[in-house]
Amino acid sequence: MVKIKFCGFTLAEDIKRAVGLGVDYVGIVLYPKSPRYVSWERVKDLLRAGEGVKKVAVMVNPTYEEAQKAFDLGFDLVQLHGEESLDFSKKFDLDKVIKAFRTCPGLSLEDGWKECHGVLLDACSHQYGGSGKESDWEYAKSLVERGFRVFLAGGLKAEKVKEAIRRVKPYCVDVSSGIEKDAGIKDHKKMEEFVNAVKNAFRD
């Protein structure tokens, strides 16, 4: 089955519900300008709630020290959501790095990014994720065919994710705003509906 990443958590109870639903990854945003930002002081409580799943620190153009601090606190992976280079990413174990790209016209990925844990494809937006807009599924599909491990993000909701999975065949689907009541506050019913839609993606 396609793996599931729920992102943008700010509450421990929401993470516990996600774990109970069987998601594979939970993302916590450590970017201060995001409406879903979680401070370093609050991170530990959220990490404890995510026992048993991979915990992802979502960061935008961090310093090496900031990214390393995330690992030291207990995150399994860092999601680099800014303009980080492949050389910067190689300072870490690449299998612990998810590199995010916005699928704007002209985007071209070099094969070196295949060594990462995954490449996350988001919408073409001035925002660093969480825009609720759809990414370029055809470009995502082309990367899957080239052998990239694709995390498909951008505007996914329960009623749309089945089609996305069938068309793109990504390694993982990633959702944030599509399972929310408000920025950073998750809707447990939407979370459950999304998981069920993914599980039934190839059933008519």
Description:
The protein is 32% helix and 21% strand. The chain has 204 residues and is of the alpha/beta class. It has one domain: TIM Barrel, CATH 3.20.20.70. The two termini are 15 Å apart. The model has no long low-confidence stretch (mean pLDDT 94).
Residue stretches low in confidence (pLDDT < 50, at least 5 long) are: none
Question: What would CATH call the homologous superfamily?
Answer: Aldolase class I
Distance between the termini: 15 Å
Number of contiguous helices: 7
> Which strand order does the major sheet show?
1-2-3-4-5-6-7-8
CATH fold node name = TIM Barrel
Report the major sheet: 8 strands, parallel, barrel
User: Which series of helices and strands comes N to C?
Assistant: EHEHEHEHEEHEHEEEH
Query: Which architecture name does CATH use?
Result: Alpha-Beta Barrel
Instruction: Give average pLDDT, whole number.
Output: 94
Secondary structure class reads alpha/beta
Strand content: 15-25%
Number of domains: 1
CATH C-level name: Alpha Beta
Helix content: 25-40%
Compute the CA-based radius of gyration: 15 Å
Shape: globular
Strand runs, count: 10
What's the structural blueprint in terms of helices and strands?
Layout lengths: L2 E4 L5 H10 L3 E5 L10 H10 L4 E6 L4 H10 L3 E4 L5 H4 L7 E6 L15 E5 L14 H9 L4 E3 L5 H11 L3 E4 L4 E3 L2 E2 L1 H12 L5
Parallel strand pairs: 1-2, 1-8, 2-3, 3-4, 4-5, 5-6, 6-7, 7-8
Antiparallel strand pairs: 9-10
Helix pairs in contact: 1-2, 1-7, 6-7
